[in-house]
Amino acid sequence: MIDTAALRAEQIEKAKAVIKQDNQGFDEPKWIAGADVGFEQDGKITRAAIAVLSYPSLELVEYRVARVPTSLPYIPGLLSFREYPALMAAWSQLTTVPQLVLVDGQGIAHPRRLGVASHFGLLIDVPTIGVAKSRLCGKYDESGLQDGAAVPLVDKDEQIGWVWNSKARCKPLYVSVGHRVSQESALLWVERCMRGYRLPEPTRWADAIASRRPAFVRWLAAHPEKNVDEG
DNA sequence: GCGACAG
DNA sequence: ATCTTGTCGC
């Protein structure tokens, strides 16, 4: 059985270590990464992809894919325990260490303030930002989403992130502090990583790699020397 | 008690 | 998350 109560207690404990202020020296990052997790073989295998992009050019320079046996089922609120092992495996293989990582999922916009972006950030001790495609908790003013402005995501009278319509006619993004970034910087860096799509480039590439999308397959054909795919 | 619920 | 074609709207 899974001791969910113990995992929740661990989240409350770890959340105390999350730093919600800007990290010294990442104001001009040279590399920004995107991280995403997917599954194979009916969920038995967890697969993490990390894409490292140059900044500000936002070009893919390196990627890593790691596969590990799935250790936990999906339980809302406990996602990070299921995903961090594979993320760590991919992270440890990186040659280029980024100064900032955008993670697919919530940062502190979580019931106990420890989404996968925060948990992973604590483990690698590198600034991270949570960029989720849907909401876990919190409420916001939907009427304020119109003109492309970000609106506060609030839970228990506390702002835990932003809801931002990154692209017209698309569902909004839920941006929150992961670790070692301020709430203002979290939104700012996501905005700086946009190139016309709903998702910021780092996360978009990580997703393309994890799902082997056409854009990534084309990039691989153009950069055969960077092929590190293990299958 | 009831509904909500990242990926 | 993942399985998948066409289809609606800009």
TrEMBL record:
GO MF: deoxyribonuclease V activity; magnesium ion binding; RNA endonuclease activity producing 5'-phosphomonoesters, hydrolytic mechanism; single-stranded RNA binding
Broadest EC class assigned to this enzyme: hydrolase
Main location (coarse class): cytoplasm
Domain of life: Bacteria
Enzyme Commission code: 3.1.21.7
Alphabetic keyword roster: Cytoplasm, DNA damage, DNA repair, Endonuclease, Hydrolase, Magnesium, Metal-binding, Nuclease
Binding of Mg(2+), residues: 36, 104
A Pfam family: Endonuclease_5
Cofactors: Mg(2+)
Catalytic activity: Endonucleolytic cleavage at apurinic or apyrimidinic sites to products with a 5'-phosphate
GO cellular component: cytoplasm
Site location (Interaction with target DNA): 74
Compartment(s): Cytoplasm
Keyword Repressor: no
GO biological process: one example: DNA repair
PANTHER family on file: ENDONUCLEASE V
Function statement: DNA repair enzyme involved in the repair of deaminated bases. Selectively cleaves double-stranded DNA at the second phosphodiester bond 3' to a deoxyinosine leaving behind the intact lesion on the nicked DNA.
Protein name listed in UniProt: Endonuclease V
Species: Leminorella richardii
Classification lineage: Bacteria, Pseudomonadati, Pseudomonadota, Gammaproteobacteria, Enterobacterales
Gene: nfi
